[in-house]
Amino acid sequence: MGKHGKCSHDAEACYPPAPGGDMYPYMMESPQIRWAFIRKVYVIVLLQLLLTVAVAAAVNHVAAIGAFFRSRTLASLGAWIAVVLAPFVVMIPMICLRKRHPINLVLLTLFTICMSFSVGLSCLTAKGVIVLEAAAMTLVVVVGLTAYTFWAAKRGHDFEFLGPFLVAASLILIVFLVMRMLFPMGKTGTLVYGCIAALIFSGFIIYDTDNLIKRFSYDEYIVAAIELYLDIINLFQAILSVLEAIDG
Question: pTM of the full predicted structure?
Fold first, then answer.
């Protein structure tokens, strides 16, 4: 009983130090603890993605929801603004309370629902086949980049150096997005923006997966899950915008 109680408060007490720590050279603790953490994060991300698919499908297939958001009324405009702002509003307490169980999971679920509505609205004007193509391409890219990062980490490669470059690229992307909103650039602008965004968020997938393997502490599973989830969602939306621009 005492041992189980200790495990519930201290994850390291649940696993004895194990040989083979050089399997991933930059791991800060035993492989058992790190792999348990990695599995936990990927389960959370998978559940987030399934919830996103369900909510986005409801937005696109429930006629009343689609008709409401397509209508150019004051109420629909307010709803659009609320959908855009809601994830940012929820993210603040979610980050502050990320280590407070179970409120962290409740806020994570609420954040995922808010993001899911945003994804659903981005798919509202796209053809169904384009959405499926974007989802399939996103899956292939995510699986490929994740496998590559684990392979590279096992051989001692480190991707921490990508951090400053990705931050700078994100700032440039935000500036480009604002310019695109103020001065519509047409299909070409959308295509360029989508390609740049896809490259940036592909880099984030490598960077955040590398952090998942080596740097996040065991109780930072909420932050790790949020980062990977947002990388995947943003990559999907970037690919979707590229395919829409090509489709014309």
Answer: 0.85
